Amino acid sequence: MGVSTAGAATAARPARTILVLGDSLSAEYGLKRGSGWVALLEKKLQAEKLSVTVVNASISGDTTAGGRSRLAGLLAQHRPTHVIIELGANDALRGLPLQLTEDNLNQMTQAAQKSGAKVLLIGMQMPPNYGKDYGARFAALYAAVAKTNKAALVPFLLKGIADAPGNAADSTRLFQADRIHPKEEAHPLMLANVWPELKKILK
Length: 203
Prior knowledge:
CATH architecture: 3-Layer(aba) Sandwich
Mean pLDDT: 90
Oligomer: single chain
Radius of gyration: 18 Å
């Protein structure tokens, strides 16, 4: 007795899976487990009654080259329907060529799309002390990659956190002692920056 094709199709249809490929900003660096924006995203999806699995493959200190080298294996293992790429800040901190970062982001985006996943790029910005020109070019490369590949984009993960209005004390209030990694109380704001764009591509 055979299985109906309708039933087989339903059984074969994979549940939605979001793969987060990021660095320390997504890997809960300096935070207690379960308090970072990715963990908060899981709770948000549950609250919205959305059946979505979240796989956090973020590693502190990772670069776009590191993410690119890991992505094929992660795509094969988890078969995500959505991929969030939050990488690039460590490239800039190490002074790597911007073209290299852009190339890696393009390759990762295209590989994820080729596997059938929708991609959300998470943009970053550099502190003013890196130079106005470098900072502008770095921020612009995320928009360029998103446009080239017709991918979704969050322009700046730390919007309202790193660029908080007020004096220097205000702008560092939401950061850990290293002034690079956000405190726990900043992570709901990070999720609030990501969620509107992610929600669009989850539909």
